Amino acid sequence: MRIPSAVFLTVAITMSTTLPVASQDFEFPARKPGQWEIKMVPETPGSMPDMTIVACVDAASDAEMMRAGLSMTKEMCAKQEMKREGDAIVIDTTCKIGPMETTSHSVITGDFDSAYTVVTTTESAGAVPPMPHASAMKQEARWVSADCSDGLEPGDMLMPGGMKTNIKDMMKMMGGG
Question: 0.85 exceeded by the pTM?
Fold first, then answer.
């Protein structure tokens, strides 16, 4: 099944901003295994509708999602700085997606065992037609249960509209697996 580009971009953004990311000097905590619900709520009026993604993770699939997020940001982002500020994790990136350049600031709070929240502000330029654009997105992730439902296996994500994909399939589509 071909994933519509808008859905694929949403997943790419979700993976690159909300999943554990590691670098030489920074490592995210792993998410608790089981079913997670990630609710994406745009805080910029008219930017996109609220949507919810359900993800089933175990240690291996969570690590694979981390690898996918890293590979996307490594290829697209000239700048990626991650640091801790008190109990928060702060990520600043500058990325280029086609002709568009985005600068994002994300603040992640939570424990990765029961819930975490990501608030991201993004400024973009170079879109067609050319116009600067600022947006804000809040992602609220919560652990639902140790067992995954709806026929989900570790690595599966249930997208809006009921479309199911697996991180390994997405990596193949991106040419990384």
Answer: no
